[in-house]
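$ fold --in a.seq
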Amino acid sequence: MRVDISKKNILGDGVTDYTVALQNIIDMLSGNGGGELYFPAGRYLTGSLYIKSNITINLGSGAVLAASGNYELYPVITQNDVLGFTRGTHRGILYAADEKNITIKGEGIIDGCGDSWWESGKTDTQRPRTIQFINCSRIRIEGISIINSPCWTINPICCTDVAICGISIKNPYKSPNTDGINPESCKNVRISDCCVDVGDDCITIKSGLETDILQKQYPCENITVTNCTLIHGHGGVVIGSEMSGGVRNVTISNCVFQNTDRGIRIKTRRKRGGCVENIMVSNLIMDSVMAGITVNAYYQCGAKPDDMELFSQEALPVVETTPTMKDMLFSNIIMKNVRAAGIYLLGLPEMPVQNIRMTNLNITVEGCADGEYAVAAYHAEKSFGDGIVLEHAKDIYIDNCFVTAPKNKFIMKKIKNVWINGDACEKNH
């Protein structure tokens, strides 16, 4: 069943709030087994909509689904925030839980109208995601454009069989925490042919914090990111830092990174546990990034600086909450106009970054006079134009690698079994 909302006296005037009317149509379609809600050209104002099983939202050319600035139209749900504290979160603009067979598609736009949320200083509850699905299956988001998200833009949590293809996300560069696509503890996710330009990480793969009981038991696995253009974010494709459930079987290929702080960014710290493994990265172009590839086991953001256990440079006992990062392949990557460091791998003394193979790399580092922090770690020093930096790393194989850097081509500390272009580098440098 297909319903053209203009036939239901819902007019795209950009003024009238249609939250109740749109929800009634969704409920009616659901009661009939499902169907399509079609938006013709116009601007339609709404609060949070609960999307049910077998529902398609189709935004036609010229249609804009615009988020209301009335906070009361976004019911508060309980959810852990990014630091692991349980508090209220405003329900997403398009939201579903325990549903299946949902499609969001079309040539139109979802405008999150995030300005009021960014500027409100509201901290008692988290800002709403634009699209958030929890414990859902068979999700497809296709063709649409999303702008001005109040917080994370697309956030599936504990979902399976998710396809996100051919979409555009544009959030202002300085907008807070407006990540593009963040699958958390999901299985079988494909992100393809997307353009993401945001104020935080472009694509982030997560699996929960150590305090998140719901997610701790669920890894994020079988994730594909391909044919995407990623612009301006703190990270292009990011794994972590919330990874207590583990992240595995990730393929990233045929992507372009432009002016991101980091290209591929993997981050965690002690007490978060989890294992990042089986990561395949190939055929990338990175232009004007601060750092091309970073792996950081000392991620400092959100941590108390006086928690000496988190940031101790001495080897600690390996326990359940010791994070592991291993088994990664990086191949056929061009990095140009890099400002800080081409590659920066920083493991733990008790758990080095391990079994990393890099092949066919062409890295050109320009450097900057003041230097920049390639990794966010308390003891990390600024990089002034370094090629490859390894610290607490073992079983690292770098083949057919060409590095041009104004300072150091290679910096190695506390390494074991490192090979560069066929030469063993067993001693620290």
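$ fold --in b.seq
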Amino acid sequence: MKVKETIEYLEQGKETKLFETLYGKADTEKNRQRYVALLKGYGAAFGEEKDVRLFSSPGRTEISGNHTDHNHGKVLAGSINLDCVGVASKNNTDKIHIISETYDQDFTVDLKHLEPSAKKAGTIDLVKGLLKGFEEAGYEVGGFDAYITSNVISAAGVSSSASFEMLLCSMINTFFNEGRMDTVAYAHIGKFSENRYWDKASGLLDQMACAVGGLITIDFADPASPVVEKIDFDFGSQEHSLIIVQTGKGHADLSADYSSVPNEMKKVAAFFGKDVLQQVDEKELLQNISAVRSQAGDRSVLRALHFFEENKRVEAEVKALKENRFQDFLQAITASGNSSWKWLQNCYTTADVQEQGITVTLALTELFIAEKKRGACRVHGGGFAGVIMAILPNDLVDEYISYIEECTGENSAYRMRIRPYGAICVNEYFGK
């Protein structure tokens, strides 16, 4: 359909069910108008006579499996109702033209020149990396025009970059590869781009969660071929919401803190002649605990113990969801959060012990949950600064947001829901 046809189609309300599935009833109309505005923006920039398609790629939340993927462990993640959306069409050239409303960017990438810049930074390098990843994986690429916007919160641990990457992967798959690619291929291409064109040592978690959609568990025992399982569970049916709270950003450079987690876990693995903890038997660690403490250090041991127990918790959480034992699932989330705080120790940086936004926010949230006797919370993502997650009954959400924003500031708490779809061409879901 052309631009005006698509606008008319959406304004007729024919896809209300689809928008409710993606965004929830309360936000259906707002997002319908968001798509209409995007189409108008595309028309003004590129013309209204081309056949266009709509695309959507969600942000993600890490529900459990905190700091396990880099040592080839297990995670539980989900796609959320915040997304990166785009209108695109083939342009039959060797150039890709992208306009991003969100970041006020307008740039073109030449398919004949995909070498990274000297800085290896920014959106253009990321796009070049994606295109090169497609080529090296044996897939087709071609020229297209895209007009994009995103409401995936930056610097909130919900993977705004991965959401953008998977959106472009969906476009390229749809336009040039007949939709035959699976979402695992998307994730590997996103990882390739970040590793090679940003020099960022990212894994596959963010991309996988954004690409696949819904609740998923991932086993990274073989990182080249991670085992992905989609969990058939309707989170919304439990009358609970997921809230992400921005606690305030630390001022120090946290690179050393982040790197210390995988490095210290690997130090324990090295004691046993292994590369990562997934290759180590927990019982063997316990049998040699004194020697490991002496060689690797106490914090390394604690972080290794977190790794092993966190893997077990992910398994228990998945089992609880499959058996519809939601309260048991929440108890495991609480245990996971406690382990991150006490054993993994990624809730604040030791470089500035007076800056503890995460721990203060967690403490206040725990007080709220203790009073109400319902809900769960934990640090979200990498930690040390940034974001926490709370899972609360819907009837407590507004009260909690008012309560916590007294500490974290206005508009710092975001109510989210798990959506069942990952990175998609929206047109393919019309009429379903």
